Amino acid sequence: MVQHRFVMGTGLVVALLMGGCVQTALLPSGQLDGGETVVSANLDEPGFLYIPRLNLQVTQGLGGGDLTGNVAGTLGMVGGGLAGRYYLTDAVNVEGQVQVQSVCLSEETRQATVLLGGQQTTRPDDHLYLGGHAGGLYGEELLAVQNKRHAYPLVGGTIGVGHIDLGGAWRMQMELESSVPVTTGEWELVPPARVSIGVFRHWE
Fold first, then answer.
1. Mind listing the domains of the chain with CATH numbers?
2. How confident is the model over 80-128, as pLDDT tens digits?
């Protein structure tokens, strides 16, 4: 009973600390023309210790796809990554993404890396988009003295609302994403979803 409580308690602390580790960049909901640039800022919740995470990113249209670089941070956590999309059709994108997060714990720094590949719909005549992804989370244990590393497979999906016109070249986007570790044990308690609200500025 004592051991069970310890495992559950440890898992809960890991969930609080690592809430932001499976979060990803909020990519533009629509496809970009070649040479088009989109700069955006969004807030993600949960972040670190459930403090929202601020994410800043730039997406460059390449013609048939795009490339995104982002940096993110909140109290005690910084990170960033790269994402690339290929426009399979006018209505479907395939994407790959890598994100690295560093968490500062007292005098120590622990890191986690997320690798994801997925598919997402884009509908120029509709605000709603859907997606699915799979990948892995590779991270250091936050609470272990020996600082062991572990890899966990992830699966998840997204549902979002984009192309919300704010006037001029400004757009708003909202997204709910789920990334769930496919394992048993304490990492099951990692928050399985995040909500992002972002503002986008387009340049042709």
1. 2-203 (2.40.160)
2. 999 999 999 989 999 999 998 887 766 677 788 889 999 999 876 678 9
